């Protein structure tokens, strides 16, 4: 029988499995169904999904002791770069039926996979759009509690600022996965991170923490911050 312990963040758990390993997990919002290659583990009538940090920047950041955790019951999330829905599905587990994830994805192929997940989960709203142009989804997306960006694009910081300005509530949070090699392959990643942080601060955003997510992802950091104006 697995051991289950609550994580310090809400709606997250630690599972100690038969082989002695400890894994991050969320409660499965659709028992019996997987979204990717996660393991399903049941205890006392509750089914848990293992949350693989090698397949999710959020999972990586949690494993690297993420301190600020705005993904709570009932939250409204704008997710940029939703792909096929791996991380989106775990956030879906965490925010519950009263929350909403507006999941923006540019690739029609990835969106088809995401739509399959969204059909089974009422709190995911898939949107085929280009995150560089926030006005494209203004008819669907309201003001949100969190803007999450995981986009492999040279203009990553501009995309974040534009979407935060358009959709994030005052005192809302942003979660930004910075991919140094997508910005400039010739520069030292640390120099890129410093430039991105200065850029966000110059736009009036408050940086709460930065997390290097190696060994899960090379040349990536996660920046968590707030919009205070």
Strand order of the largest sheet: 8-7-6-9-10-12-11
Order of helices and strands: EEEEEHEHEHEEHEHHEE
> In CATH terms, what is the architecture of the largest domain?
3-Layer(aba) Sandwich
The parts where pLDDT drops under 50 for at least 5 residues are none
* Gyration radius, in Å: 17 Å
Q: Averaged pLDDT, please?
A: 95
- Count up the helices: 6
Polypeptide structure, described:
- The chain is 26% helix and 32% strand.
- With 229 residues, the chain is α/β, with parallel strands linked by helices.
- It folds into 2 domains: 3-51, Phosphorylase Kinase, domain 1 (2-Layer Sandwich), CATH 3.30.200; 57-227, 3-Layer(aba) Sandwich (Rossmann fold).
- The strands form 2 sheets. The protein has a 7-stranded mixed β-sheet, with helices on both faces. The protein has a 5-stranded antiparallel β-sheet with strand order 1-2-3-5-4.
- The protein is globular, with a radius of gyration of 17 Å.
- The mean pLDDT is 95.
SSE topology sketch:
Layout: E1 3-6, E2 13-16, E3 22-27, E4 40-43, E5 46-50, H1 57-63, E6 76-80, H2 86-95, E7 100-105, H3 108-120, E8 124-128, E9 144-149, H4 156-167, E10 168-179, H5 180-183, H6 189-202, E11 205-212, E12 220-227
Parallel strand pairs: 6-7, 6-9, 7-8, 9-10
Antiparallel strand pairs: 1-2, 2-3, 3-5, 4-5, 10-12, 11-12
């Amino acid at each position: 029988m697995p051991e289950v312990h609550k994580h310090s963040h809400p709606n997250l758990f630690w599972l100690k499995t038969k082989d002695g390993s400890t894994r991050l997990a969320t409660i499965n919002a659709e028992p019996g169904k997987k979204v990717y290659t996660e393991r399903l583990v049941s205890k006392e009538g509750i089914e848990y999904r293992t949350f693989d940090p090698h397949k999710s920047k959020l999972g990586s950041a949690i494993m690297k002791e993420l301190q600020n955790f705005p993904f709570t019951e009932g939250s409204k999330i704008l997710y940029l770069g939703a792909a096929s829905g791996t991380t989106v599905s775990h956030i879906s587990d965490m925010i519950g039926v009263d929350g909403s994830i507006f999941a923006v994805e540019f690739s029609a192929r990835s969106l088809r996979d995401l739509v399959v997940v969204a059909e089974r989960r009422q709190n995911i709203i898939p949107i085929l759009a280009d995150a560089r142009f926030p006005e494209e989804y203004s008819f669907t997306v309201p003001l949100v509690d969190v803007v999450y960006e995981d986009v492999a694009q040279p203009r990553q910081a501009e995309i974040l600022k534009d979407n935060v300005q358009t959709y994030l509530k005052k005192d809302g949070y942003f979660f930004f996965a910075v991919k140094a090699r997508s910005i400039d392959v010739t520069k030292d990643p640390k120099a890129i991170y410093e430039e991105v942080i200065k850029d966000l601060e110059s736009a009036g955003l408050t940086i709460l923490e930065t997390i290097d997510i190696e060994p899960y992802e090379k040349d990536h950091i996660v920046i968590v911050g707030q919009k205070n104006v």
